[in-house]
Design brief:
575 residues; alpha+beta; 5-stranded antiparallel sheet; 38 strands; 21% helix; globular
């Protein structure tokens, strides 16, 4: 057989089908599976990893390329990967616990190798090799042009051009919206209706409110919409004002806003900034209003007691310094809990109590392994106690002095809130839904010889993933991946599962057997809290951007926010 000078016959004989098949596996696992089955993300990641390994083995052992090309290609890819990893934006370098660049670059490099091999198989050696260098540099170096705004609950990254401004930067570039003069907010009736995280009892359940559910005839009416600094705080509402936390540049901010207009009444600033790539910047906790004060806990450990009227500092502590605790990877996420004259916060899996009046440390509870749950006041076996989920299970202490009452060991983590059943049992979920550890129902008893815990059942039909659940009329409602699920309180069996809500949050309107569901994409939905089937009653788009913050409903005003904007809607009440 004759050949044209400058061409290599061996390149025409490349064995391409194994590489093409593996590339198809990567494309299927990386793009198709997450699109149609978001809850199969782990399978998609596994399929992608298998495809990458197969491509590497194919190219090195079975491609029929010249050995020089086989080795040179892998060396060049490794050099390109290493060089690019040094110049990518910090959000990509730190994303996914430092794994984001590898997670995205390795599949792209693998696909680029196969694409190059197929496209250049019949070209001359010199041109093929030159195009390989260009292909690898573009495939890997292109990541240096990007940044990420974080990841969703399904680990999808929010990519933007590196030079584009973040929502926080756009907010800071706006004309100042600082309160013109110190103001005293109107604290008119009916007083503190939504004192903090997840409502009056910190359980996500609202009593005494009934809304019209036909949102076609009586849709929620937008009252105002305002940009806000990043953070995953929710709201505390008192009379005509509400409180939340946000990040603005180098300052962690507590802001009091007018409920009617959305305009700021006062702001308190602390020189602190917490940031991690997955969720972004800002505080994670929610303010708590009690006795005319606003208690806040920042992501770096700053615990404040502020005057609810004007934001003046009554006292301030650094709980991280007080307890000699390192700031955890995702920041301190606890919302303060006021029990009598004690303010309780969670410190990376442990609890600490402060005097509510003076701010003096009162007690530090037993050491616990990490966690991002908030302290929860419960009465179990007739005894008021503070329960916390952490990386070792569930712990309980006496609110007055932090004395340990009981502990339930569970090799999970602590992110979501526990819940009580009507008959006094305790429900705990991990919060790390990807771990598939499920939900546990415990009976906690107090006898003469002390406290005991007994597991009644464990269910894998509902795996909370930083999405809190609610208990209602013998059933548990919550998020199972990106879907809603209902399981039986008696035995944890599945009643129904479905819908598409991302990793959002929900509030139960108990008087109506109704769930108010806020999706991860900022949609609001009404879903029946009944065990027969999933029934969505209404849905509309409320805000834009990734939404992990809990909503709040006070009287006929519905408040929603995320790390970019907040909005208030007036809902029609049932007379």
């Amino acid at each position: 057989m004759t050949t044209t000078p400058g061409h290599a016959t061996s390149q025409k004989q490349l064995r391409l089908w194994p590489g093409v098949t593996a590339a198809a596996l990567i494309a299927l696992s990386w793009f198709v599976v997450p699109f149609f089955k978001p809850e199969w993300i782990l399978y998609g990641m596994l399929g992608t990893a298998v495809g990458i390994v197969v491509i590497a083995v194919w190219w090195l052992l079975f491609s029929r390329a010249r050995w020089f090309e086989r080795l040179a290609a892998l060396v060049l890819m490794a050099l390109a990967f290493f060089a690019t990893s040094r110049i990518v934006h910090k959000s990509i370098a730190n994303g996914m616990m430092g794994m984001m660049f590898m997670v995205y670059a390795l599949p792209v490099l693998s696909l680029a190798l196969v694409t190059w091999a197929v496209a250049t198989n019949r070209l001359s050696n010199g041109l093929r090799r030159a195009l390989f260098i260009v292909t690898i540099v573009l495939a890997c170096g292109g990541f240096a042009l990007l940044r990420t705004g974080g990841i969703t609950g399904e680990a999808k990254s929010d990519f933007h051009w590196r030079w584009s401004k973040t929502p926080e930067e756009r907010l800071l570039a706006r004309a100042s919206d600082e309160p013109a003069t110190p103001a005293t907010p109107l604290m008119t009736s009916p007083g503190v209706e939504w004192p903090g995280f997840r409502g009056p009892q910190r359980d996500g359940i609202l009593h005494g409110t009934r809304i019209k559910t036909d949102w076609t005839a009586s849709p929620p009416v937008e009252q105002w919409r305002e940009p806000i600094g990043p953070g995953w705080s929710s709201f505390a509402v008192a009379g005509d004002v509400f409180y939340t936390q946000e990040q603005r540049g180098d300052d962690e901010v507590v802001t009091c806003y007018n409920l009617t207009s959305g305009k700021p009444v006062w702001r308190h600033r602390d020189a602190a900034r917490f940031w991690e790539s997955n969720a972004g910047a800002g505080p994670r906790g929610t303010p708590t209003v009690s006795n005319g004060r606003v208690y806040t806990f920042g992501a770096t450990g700053i615990l404040n007691a502020l005057d609810a009227r004007d934001g003046s500092v009554i006292w301030s502590r650094n709980a991280a310094s007080d307890t000699q605790t390192k700031v955890p990877g995702w920041g301190f996420a606890s919302s303060p809990l006021v029990v009598g004259d004690v303010v309780v916060v969670a410190i990376a899996g442990s609890l600490a109590g402060y005097d509510a009046v003076t701010g003096n440390p009162r007690w530090v509870g037993p050491k616990g392994k990490g966690g991002y749950s908030s302290p929860h006041l419960m009465t179990i076996a007739g005894v008021p106690q503070v329960v916390l989920l952490n990386g070792e299970g569930a712990i309980s202490v006496a609110p007055s002095d932090g004395t340990a009452l009981w502990k339930y060991a569970w090799s999970a983590d602590g992110i979501v809130q526990p819940a009580l059943t009507e008959d006094g049992d305790l429900l705990i979920g991990s919060g790390s839904g990807m771990a598939q550890v499920g939900l546990v129902r415990l009976t906690v008893s107090h006898e003469n010889n002390g406290w005991t815990t007994k597991e009644r059942w464990k269910s894998f039909e509902l795996n909370p993933y930083y999405n809190d659940f609610v208990v209602h009329k013998g059933n548990i409602f919550g998020f199972e991946g990106s879907e809603l699920a209902c399981i039986d309180l008696k035995d944890g069996s599945l009643k129904w599962k479905g819908g598409s809500y991302g990793h959002g949050q929900l509030v139960l309107l108990s008087d109506q057997d109704l769930l108010l569901v806020e999706s991860e994409t900022g949609e609001l939905s009404l879903v029946k809290a009944t065990p027969d089937e999933l029934t969505e009653v209404a849905r509309f788009k409320a805000i834009n951007g990734k939404t992990w913050n809990h909503p709040a409903l006070v009287r006929d005003i519905l408040l929603v926010r995320n790390s970019e904007e907040m909005a208030a809607f007036r809902v029609s009440l049932v007379n």
